[in-house]
Amino acid sequence: MKKLQKETLTNLCDQLASHPWHDEEIEELVHPKLGIITGFQELLDQLEVLRKTDLGHTPPAMSVQKGN
Amino acid sequence: MFMLHSKLQSEEDIAFASATELHRLMVKGDLSATELTDIYLNRIKKFNGLSKAYITVTPNEARVNVTSFTRHDLEASPFAGVPFAAKDLFDIEGIKTTGGSRVFHDHLATEDAVSIARLKKGKAISLGKLNLHEFAYGATGENPEFGTCPNAYDTSRLAGGSSSGSAAAVAFGLAPVTLGTDTGGSVRAPASLNGIVGLKPTMGRVSTRGVMPYCWTLDHVGLMTRTVHDCANLLGLVAGFDPQDPVTVNVPVDDYAFELDNEIAGLHVGIPANFFYERTDPEILAAVERVQRYLVSHGAQLVPVTMPDMTNTRTVSLTVQMPEALSVHSRYLDERGDLYGQDFRAGLALGQCLLAEHYVRAKRFIEVYRQQTNALFDDVDILLTPTTPAIAPHIGTVTTKVDGMDEPVGNAITRFTSFFNMSGHPAITVPCGLHSEGLPMGVQVVGRYFEEKLILNVARLIEKNDEFSVPRPKIG
Prior knowledge:
Chain A is mostly helical and 68 residues long.
């Protein structure tokens, strides 16, 4: 997986059906300063670990039931 | 004027009394519901500038409602005449639901949220709507539009969030009980930081209909109270199946306050061997260990348990939260995008840039967490953990450093709570003492699905020990 470039996110938002984001928001994803969210690169690295985990046939979570 | 009572010598004593005690005084005739409502409204006038707890106060509605119930109502409901307030995500008919944001400055609710309707049916008196981190996004509770709620024990520190106003209102004596929402710990964490009781019931125990969503998969209605008994009564009032909410589950609602003082001999208490006791303030660890010893002295048995791999739980939670939040706000972003706060817009942009497979995989991990956590409950009755790894941070803190590791402050506040939003298990925080810096600490008790009665019972036992109580904060 190549290192994330800000340009990639900008192009993604420009070329797919997307809300019009300001440059500051995309910048926050690449170089976070607000202390609220994880940097996107870090998140992608962790998601890559998750992608390589075999979950068998586990379905997505739905509502919980008593006794399950 | 209310009659002075042996324990309640002033209006401040009344303001910091439990809902149970206030109701008892009203039934006895020592205090009228009108007097009680006025005491709180006067305190809100006096202290809301400091606490920032309320976004909207509704004195006229409160004064009308307070005259609308009978003696029979007073005796039938433990909340008749008792004031309450709700996080400004809950719809109350005829009142604005701002979500703590400029975006909804003109958003008037046309009907009550289910939990509000149930409180009103129990003749509780709504005082208004409470402050929060914009749209419940973030655990610091910082809000540039409505102000940041300070901690009642040290106003240079955060109340925490996202249900910051819900915690501050109880902690500053501006309401005896409040409703909040808990998506990653937004009720339990601020409750712990402010020395009060906070409950996130089982997913599906309390309807979220009429509550502005943040993340459907993880949102829970949560309760904040001064005592465990109040929490038990409040849950009994708001819990229950809602056929129009696909998440609620049709299981009987217990009488949670009945047999709340049961002994716990033979209870198996799970102590996580990983994650929950790491990178934590040593004083908090020591307090939680004192709670463990206390439970053992009452006949409980400590059982070491290994939690699921917690390495990526934050990632899983965030990967579900942000696309769902974006979906909630999609329409308003188009119409009023520039009214959103900078930090929330960045979070929504993150939701935009994740791939669909990331989201689905995260949801599958949540199912794994549920199965693995349920398996733990084959061997234990409850889990016991610290509620937060640290005391309330100072306002303006961006990152915290623990054991050489930097962590965004919001992540740190909810590090021990967010997992149970994913697993869906009921979790309660109760105070477990005062830190040497004068701030409250909390311990979290987690139970099997729909076994709120047991965790309330354990929380009540902890509460009964003065060693774990926290003093009333000095306000003003």
